[in-house]
Structure formats: structure tokens, C-alpha cells
Design a protein that fits this description.
two-stranded antiparallel ribbon; globular; single chain
Length: 393
Amino acid sequence: MSVARINVRESGIYIAFGLIVVLFAVLTDGALLQPQNLSNIIVQNSYVLILAIGMILVIIAGHIDLSVGSVVGATGAIAAVLMVEHDLPWPLALLITLIAGAAIGAWQGFWIAYFGIPAFIVTLAGMLLFRALTLSVLGNQGIGPFPDPVRTLANGFTEGYLGNIGLGPLGGADLVSLLVGLVAVGGIAVSQWRARVARLGYDQAVEPLPVFLFKIVGASAAVLFVIVQLARFKNLPWVLVLLAALVLGYSLLTKRSVFGRQIYAVGGNLQAAVLSGVKVKSVVFWIFVNMGVLSALAGIIFAGRLNLAGPTAGNTFELDAIAAAFIGGAAVQGGVGKVVGAVTGGLIMGVINNGMSLIGAPSENVMLVKGAVLLAAVAFDVWSKRRAGVASR
């Protein structure tokens, strides 16, 4: 049996996230971790986290998408026109909006995968095209309000189905929310243990057992703490339920499916992927279709949260999504990255924004810190690759 030391490249992002949370919790005298503020962090950053999930797949495959912010604005505008001006039932309007997002992704995926134009150029053009589409659809004015179910998805909370139970000095919390937290913790523990056993079965290197158990206990404690705090406020935000489903589904896609392994193969070594029989063009096409659908979903969530589809919706969202993916461990060259890491990167950005706002830091300082964090994350990736290359010689 082979035993490995702590994998700093994989675990570093989570350690950094924990240290950032602790730092701002101290600087804000605990205000960062208050129930309402934790809920605000999740709700206010939900659309960026959704975009980060799609962006990490694009970056793993060795591409980039600069148009997602404009697609968010365009699809939010389409949803508003359908629901507000044409009085379409909201489920049908949302379905049409998601199909529109898929069509946008297919349009860009075609030029990238089958025509051979670099993704940077295609999506840069898309940034301009779909921003123009947003202005045209809205007539350069905001459209709202949205139906209650859409606003509930973006801003609402789950009901207290079984009532509150006492938690001593913490007060009361919804029983169903707490049970969801326990199930999540159990799922984390079981999945990580099974992965460890599988690696041992193939005589692969694993972390020492005490380190492994410490990571599981730490992650479980963090999840339970957040769930308890959310349950003390207004229970679980619906966007958190949506995000949890997306993270679970896309994690399974990347880890357990043939398509997921092909995405890593395309980004890791394109020539080897071609020689292995991977249909590279098809893979690239579908990851951009997927990015379009997730951008449309983010557009619906963002417009629903504001209760308005505006001409400037989605501005700079692509930068936040790309930063979240790279901070979360994606490699510049492609072939490396995890869905959970991208979401963690997005949360790091959200905590920095929220924490510095709570301490009254000016906006230029916020941008300075976020830029420094992004540069440090990419520099660490480059340094670790060079170190691994030297060690293998």
C-alpha cells in the first residue's frame, strides 16, 4: 500500500477558503457568519456559481467563454418578454428560455468545434452580439415584474415543514433543514471513503488516515454549521437547493461518465484524445451547448432576484465565472479542474466581496484583493506544474 502526503494542489483551495472565512469573521467581529449574512452570500452569488459550473467544463476542455455575461442578459430579457409582455405561463417561458440558451451555445459551439475558429474569438464576438440582442429585445429599458414562482426560486426559502427544534444557545432551527444537513454530511463521508477504498484497491497513493479523517470531519462540521445558520434564519434558499443538485449532477458527470472523461482527455492531450477515438468536435460542441443552458438558468435567477430584466444585466459576469474556475483549481492549459473547486472559487470571491463590504472597504480595494487572489491562484498552478516537471526528471 502506498501512502501519500497531503496533496497541496487539491486541498490548498479549501484550506485557503477556510482561512479567508476565518480572517473576515475576525475582521467583522463575527458578522460574516451570522445567519442572515450567510444566506445573503449564497443568494447574491448564486448566478456566478451556476456560471462557474459550466465554465469549469469549458476550461477543462482547453477553451474559454467570454460571452456568458451577455448571454445572461439576453436570456433574462427573453424570459421577461415572454412572461411579462406576452403572458406566457412561467414554466413554458422558462423552458423556452433554456432552449434559447442551448441554441446560443450551439451557435457558438458550431463555429468553435466544426469551423475551427478559436473559442476566444467566437465568444468575444458573442459578447457583443448577445449584448446587442439584449438591448434589442428590451428596447433599451427594463421589463418586470416577474411572476411569484420565479421570484421565489431566486429569492425564496424552503418552508419549515416539521417546525423548529431547540438548539440551546443557538436558538431554534427547522428540523427538515437539519436532516438535509445530516444527509449531506453522510453523503460526503461515504463518497470520500469509497473513493479512498477504490484507490487502495488499485494500490494508488492515498493520504494518511488521520489526515483523511480530519478532512472529512472538518468538511462535515463546516456544512453542518452553514445549514444550522441558514435554518435559523429563513431555512434553505431555493437557489441553494438548485446549486446542490447541479453540483451533485455535474460532479457525477465529470467523475463517473464517459463524456466527463472525454472532456478531461480533450483538454489534457488533444492528440492522444483523437488517437483514442474521442469525438473531439462533438465533445467541444456539447460543452458550449451546456454553457448556454447554464447561462440561461443564471439569467433567469438574476432577473428573478432583481425582479427586473435590465439592459446592463450580466455585465462582467464572465470575469467572475472565469476567476472562480481558476481560483478553484482549473489549469491554464486545460485538463485539470473540479466542479466543487469552481464553486469554492466562486464562494471565495463572494466572501471577499461581502467581508470587505462589511468592514467598509472602498471598491478599489475589493478589486485589488480579488485581482491578487486570482493572480496567486494561477501562479500557484504554474509553479506546481514546474515543480512536478522537475521532480519527474
